[in-house]
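Work Package 4 report. The design task specified in the project plan requires that, given a folded chain encoded as structure tokens, an amino acid be chosen for each position. We show below one input record used in the internal validation round.
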């Protein structure tokens, strides 16, 4: 290996994607933002003089020498996507660089203005193996009930998951991406590599952040609606009671309360439970013998198994369409 071999220079305009066709070591020179995907580099990765580096690979290794480079990828470049290189990679003259979990064997960042790295937790499977991935700029995609995981790479993409019924890992690398997850009784673990990304989940989804290599990323959960605790509404309880005396029970939402008078906890969904012993005619109580209840309960102290509310026609169309 010597430094006197002149590297091959390849010129591109716009976005450039390295996908295994170049002889390593490869230098990617002068791209704006660069995204290095999981398992992309089967060697060392060196980032020379970037602004910010957001990385799930820890830094500190020896750099790839610039005189070892065999291929230079340059030109009038926008963003760079490093999807696969068999060997070492140098990235020079980039603005921000996003390095996914397991993206390279080692990483060195020379002269970076700032490096963001959080090793709080690692995804249990490589993001490369997830069923769904969206990569690029301002892409949109909707998927129903994906398995294992979803990944988003790039900037200002929108990925929507409907009707999720399996636990999910969500891996977001880049900036300004939005992920929305609607589902039932599932756990979601989110990994952020970058900045200003947002993941929001519906009320029956439990979401936690696994790690955040970056800043200003958001994870939001919709509050549980009171309807989730209602087994039967008053009108449902009266339905079909044409003639005679009946005892019925039903629940009503208790609006405008921030904490539950029963258990004392702050709660999203608070309802009151009622009983009525009455004489009914055509579904209406015409004489009440006993009307009890008003006891409060919330999602923390309810004996009811919390389930999804009935879907509105619009939600049904979104999920089934
Ligand atoms: Zn309560």
């Amino acid at each position: 290996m010597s430094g006197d071999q002149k590297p091959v220079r390849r010129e591109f305009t716009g976005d450039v994607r390295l996908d295994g066709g170049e002889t390593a070591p490869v230098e990617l020179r002068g791209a704006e933002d660069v995204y290095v995907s999981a398992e992309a580099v089967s060697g060392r990765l060196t980032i020379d003089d970037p602004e910010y580096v957001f990385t799930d690979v820890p830094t500190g290794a020896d750099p790839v020498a610039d005189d070892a480079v065999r291929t230079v990828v340059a030109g009038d470049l926008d963003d760079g996507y490093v999807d696969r290189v068999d060997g070492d990679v140098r990235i020079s003259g980039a603005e921000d660089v996003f390095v996914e979990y397991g993206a390279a064997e080692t990483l060195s960042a020379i002269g970076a203005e700032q490096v963001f790295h959080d090793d709080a937790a690692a995804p249990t499977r490589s993001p490369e193996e997830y069923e769904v991935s969206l990569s690029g700029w301002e892409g949109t995609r909707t998927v129903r009930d994906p398995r294992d995981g979803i990944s988003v790479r790039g900037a200002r993409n929108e990925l929507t998951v409907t009707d999720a019924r399996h636990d999910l890992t969500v891996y977001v690398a880049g900036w300004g991406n939005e992920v929305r997850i609607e589902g039932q009784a599932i756990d979601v673990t989110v990994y952020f590599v970058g900045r200003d990304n947002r993941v929001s989940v519906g009320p029956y989804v439990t979401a936690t952040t696994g790690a955040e290599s970056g800043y200003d990323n958001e994870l939001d959960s919709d509050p549980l609606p009171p309807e989730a605790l209602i087994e039967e509404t008053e009108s449902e309880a009266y339905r079909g009671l044409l003639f005679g005396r009946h005892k019925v029970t039903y629940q009503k939402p208790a609006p405008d309360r921030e904490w539950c008078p029963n258990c004392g906890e702050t709660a999203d969904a608070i309802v009151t439970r009622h009983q009525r012993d009455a004489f009914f005619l055509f579904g209406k109580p015409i004489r009440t013998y006993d009307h009890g209840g008003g006891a409060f309960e919330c999602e923390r102290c309810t004996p009811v198994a919390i389930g999804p509310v009935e879907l509105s026609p619009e939600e049904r169309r979104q999920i089934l369409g």
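Residues 8-116 form one domain. Validation will be extended to a larger panel in the next phase.
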